[in-house]
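Good morning,

Attaching, inline, the backbone tokens for the sequence recovery test we're adding to the shared suite. The designed sequence is right after.
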């Protein structure tokens, strides 16, 4: 194993030990602690590529978690898995649920836009330029929101908006 991978594994393990210690001593309700543990286990499974296990842990976390911000983060991670597995409709639906919980997640908007832009490229390859424009316009709409939430954070998206003529002045306000 390369030395930098050993270091990363050490850092991951050290972070986990520290986080668990903090969770144990913080005056947090037992339900919230369990929700965090399920979330953490889901994240570890996701990082290891065990998506089905990760989704199970995330579902358990959602049953216990009350914080909208934490629920939004969990839903976002679930949507990433759905997107990775090619279930783009479920990913979009789950990203929207995440945004209901926490509307200030520009990465959800960015990823929804990626799916729309991909559908537009496929329509273009098929010669369906009307459908392409519909998908590209949908991508531009969500990407404009993402850029407003995270100015300067998505330069490639800002460039796409400009080069496709789908940028408007209020994107940068």
């Amino acid at each position: 194993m390369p030395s930098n991978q050993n270091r990363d594994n050490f850092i991951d393990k050290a972070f986990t030990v520290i986080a668990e210690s903090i969770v144990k001593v913080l005056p947090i309700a037992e339900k919230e602690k369990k929700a965090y543990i399920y979330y953490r286990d889901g994240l570890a499974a996701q990082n290891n590529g065990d998506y089905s296990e990760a989704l199970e842990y995330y579902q358990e976390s959602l049953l216990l978690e009350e914080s909208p911000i934490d629920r939004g983060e969990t839903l976002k991670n679930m949507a990433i898995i759905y997107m990775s597995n090619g279930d783009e409709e479920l990913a979009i639906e789950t990203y929207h649920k995440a945004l209901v919980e926490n509307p200030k997640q520009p990465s959800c908007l960015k990823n929804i836009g990626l799916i729309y832009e991909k559908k537009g490229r496929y329509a273009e390859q098929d010669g369906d330029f009307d459908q392409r424009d519909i998908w590209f316009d949908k991508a531009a709409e969500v990407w404009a929101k993402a850029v407003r939430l995270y100015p300067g954070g998505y330069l490639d998206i800002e460039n796409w908006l400009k080069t496709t003529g789908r940028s408007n002045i209020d994107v940068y306000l």
